[in-house]
Amino acid sequence: MITTFGGGVGAGKFLEGLYSQNSKKELNIIVNTADDINIYDVRVSPDVDSILYWLSGKVDRRKGWGIKGDTFNHLKKRNANDSWFNLGDQDLAENLKKKLLINKGSSLQEVVDYQRKKLKIRRANIFPMTNQEVETFITSKKKEIHFQEYLIKYKMKPKIEKVIFRNIRKSRPSEGIIDKINKSKFIIFCPSNPIISIGPILSVPGIRTAIKNSKAIKIAISPIVGGRAFKGPVLDFMKAKGLEPSVIGVASFYKDLVDYFMVDNEDKKYENKIKSLGVVPIFKNIRMTKKLVSVNMSKSILELPDK
Q: 3-state SS of 222-246?
């Protein structure tokens, strides 16, 4: 059994390769939902939707998110100040269906599983990290800003002073997650932003403890290559949390959780520093410009020896 954690474009690209290689082991994908936002009269789960689209082949590969060929006509009908969130017409339609199911009493977890089956993703289970509503806010100049506003509306310009996962302490892991962690042979942290994609998942009560107690082979993949992040404000969030904005900062974030840390060949100079943190580095090409790269990354992980 394999259990993965992540969210965002890096997770989508890696999981596409892992999904294509895995046919014998049960694959469980735990996805961040702290990026969720209420907008356009729906509640959007960007990371969950992105994983669904990557694994079903519907994703817009050029952008790394959304549905390929989607239009944005509904945004043209809205006030310019209220149309900053780039949700496509097809994407909106899917979220309206989700809203209808939730209004009828389904949990987010049940809706995601329905979507998974509808998109014919048969060889993986996809779990939102929790069924409770959790949202990420940053504090900048004593003002709280929703993560999506920071990312899109304000184009990542506000200085990050503090990161808040609102309602996280009242959340609970989605049904079955702890059991999957306990039974896993492999636990993989996708190349996602450690602070705002992985951090919220680890903050859901019970999940971090279950991972630490698991006897699985545990691997994290760096979202940074050569001092640059794959996507988004990874470095800024690491600085805000007092972590070195490099692969060493990522290794420090995971040092008490993983056995191995997969890093790009370009960052081999950090080998000794990574080892000094008690983590074994694995050097590969992790620039996922082609699906073959994530396929090869997955093969290397699945060939790791038992403890």
A: CCEECCEECCCCHHHHHHHCCCCCC
